[in-house]
C-alpha cells in the first residue's frame, strides 16, 4: 500500500519524524 499525501498535508515518515508541508510525502505501508 502506497499512500501519497498532498503537499500541504503534514505527515510523519517511517521514523515518526515530522515532515514539512511543502514536501510531497509517499509512505509505503
Outline the structure in words:
With 29 residues, the chain is mostly beta strands. The chain has strands at 2-5, 11-12, 18-19, 25-28. A two-stranded antiparallel ribbon has the order 1-4. The protein has a two-stranded antiparallel sheet with strand order 2-3. Strand 2 (11-12) and strand 3 (18-19) form a beta hairpin.
Query: Helices and strands, in N-to-C order?
Result: EEEE
Radius of gyration computed on alpha carbons: 8 Å
**Count of helical stretches:** 0
Terminal Cα separation, in Å?
5 Å
The strand count comes to 4
Structural class, judged by helices and strands? mainly beta
Coarse shape: elongated
Strand order in the sheet with the most strands? 1-4
The average pLDDT is 59
Amount of beta strand: 35-45%
Largest sheet composition: 2 strands, antiparallel
Uncertain residue ranges: none
Outline of the structure:
The chain is mostly beta strands and 29 residues long. The protein has strands at residues 2-5, 11-12, 18-19, 25-28.
Amino acid at each position: 500500500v502506497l499512500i501519497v499525501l498532498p503537499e500541504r498535508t503534514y505527515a510523519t515518515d517511517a521514523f515518526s519524524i515530522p515532515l514539512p508541508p511543502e514536501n510531497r510525502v509517499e509512505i509505503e505501508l
